[in-house]
Amino acid sequence: MADYIEGKRPIIEALRTDVPLRRIFMADNAKRDPLIEDILRKARRREVNVKMVPQSKLDEISVRGSHQGVIAEARRFEYLGVGDLIDAAETYAAEHGGRALIVLLDHITDAGNLGAVIRSAESVGAVGIIIPNKRSAHVDASTYKSSAGAVAHLGIAQTSNIVQAIKRLQENGFWIAAASEHARDQVWDVNLKGKIGLVMGNEADGVSRLVLEKCDLLGKLPMMGKVSSLNVAQASTAFMYEWLRQNRPLGRELSAGDAGK
């Protein structure tokens, strides 16, 4: 199914954040206001085709009924395979003192959370993210926005079975660490050095029992306040930065730019 973006400002934002667009449909009677002119200007710069169509065509395509005379069709995101990420991790680890991070998301369903996790993963220098191909948020136009464009710079793989993906990572020298409120150890007491697969769970239920059973390490974040937990995007950021802290070059602190070096 095609991913459509409706409305003038959402399309301008998509063009600004480099969402890969296939084409833009514009009503042939659309008023040439400043927003429409901005869309046309940005589309020319990005070499995105603008097709003039009758208003009825947009009404037919529209899902939300808020197209304002313009709808963009996003290109389908090209996912990697789990093996592609493993190969990339081997290369990365060889060049970065043996460290590599791959994040596995156990059926998170909110696209905004997915984008936020992608943004943090790219920030710490993770190799990539693995997501299920069913019952899970997937990369769409909103993900580009919530990731602040980081989705274009990080490998993202889909799998039909998270447990099998974990097994493949373990066979290639990864230790699998899961974030779980049931863990005995706090995150900074968990050894996250080297090649780590970090498992983060569903927004409502956390990491599933079957997946937890396959993990080598469990860790939790201490909750010192009155709020019982962080959301998955916030928690994943904390875990990823603890991985980065533990893998900092011996004898000095990480500085800006070191994460990706």
Automatic annotation (TrEMBL):
SUPFAM superfamilies, per database record: alpha/beta knot, L30e-like
GO molecular function: RNA binding; RNA methyltransferase activity
RNA 2-O ribose methyltransferase substrate binding domain ranges (all copies): 4-80
SMART domains membership: SpoU_sub_bind (SM00967)
Superkingdom as given in the UniProt entry: Bacteria
Pfam family, one: SpoU_methylase
Cellular component GO terms, alphabetical: cytosol
Record keywords: Methyltransferase, Transferase
Signal peptide boundaries: none
A biological process term (GO) from this entry: RNA processing
Family to which this protein belongs: Belongs to the class IV-like SAM-binding methyltransferase superfamily. RNA methyltransferase TrmH family.
Record's protein name: RNA methyltransferase
Organism encoding this protein: Berryella intestinalis
